[in-house]
Amino acid sequence: MLLEFQFAKIHLFPTLPKKNVTLHSVFYYMTYNKEQHINNIDHPTIVTVGMFDGVHTGHQHILDMLLRTAATERLTPVVVTFDNHPRLVLGKTDERFHLLSTNEERRQLLERHGIVNIDWIHFTREEASLSACQFVRQHLLQRLHAKAIVIGYDNQFGNKQHNDFDQLPDLALKEGFKIFRDTPVLVDGIEVSSTQIRNALMSGDLPLANKMLGTPYAVSGTVSYGRQVGRTLGFPTANIVLDNENKALPKEGVYAATVLMADGSEHKGMVNIGPQPTFGQTAPTIEVHILDCHSDLYGQSLAIRFIQRLRDIQQFPSPNELKMQLQHDMDAVAQM
Prior knowledge:
The longest helix has 17 residues, at 57-73. The protein is elongated. Strands 8-9-12-11-10-13 form a six-stranded antiparallel barrel. Helix content is 28%, strand content 24%. It has helices at residues 57-73, 86-90, 103-112, 125-128, 132-143, 168-175, 194-203, 206-213, 229-232, 319-334, and strands at 45-49, 76-82, 118-121, 146-151, 178-181, 186-187, 190-191, 218-224, 238-242, 253-260, 266-276, 281-290, 301-311. With 336 residues, the chain is an alpha/beta fold.
């Protein structure tokens, strides 16, 4: 018999399950195998499917539901996701589409929320041709022995031209698995989604984006050689090349941030995203001035967490006036 279970719509951030807590210790977990299928699970599972871009508070609610239901049903929880975004493969993108998390960031975020079994599917046009029922049969039932599926409130996987998503309850009755449906998470009265977070970042609404994510938005990259203009003003900056060119960036501007160094230390930072109009430079860059850091950073990897947007990019009448503004910005960052 098909059972449907719904969680109430929530307006606050859920309590996040911690990795390896007692609730989940009764289950056998497989070693995570990056960007590969899990092929050797031979015991019943409960599965959720999605891109989980950003692993935001809406995703966290689904993961919490997955883990709690796994405990109730005595099933092993599995997250099925993709190592490349379907929209990138199918060419359904525009200049506004960028990823909120890289594969490595997604892996870390999923594991942080108690998920150890991650099944990575390489999305192709062949995969895109599968209908919802075909996808469930091929990946969830045959390979993962799913006895239950958790579906997000807005999840409509499967080929839309051969759309049989609404037939999943019939398939569940036939094959003997349960379907559990999640409901939206609201932040400031808005349903949380990756699209809403991208829009908030691009419009400069960092507080909304961070609320929806449940953590400060972050990017990572490698320090490369820049024009060293900041050094001449007394504010040396690290020029950052992103690890993934498809990674979303906040709106151009100056930001307060925390910077995680390669050695594990954390510092306050002042980040400039965009051009340097005072010096006639129109090409956008990502530069960070790290407070209380005098190390040679070239070639090192850094992670930047955006805390607050301070101001727009401005063209100043002279480098000296820019220097005065930078000092004001740095003082604001230091007090945070």
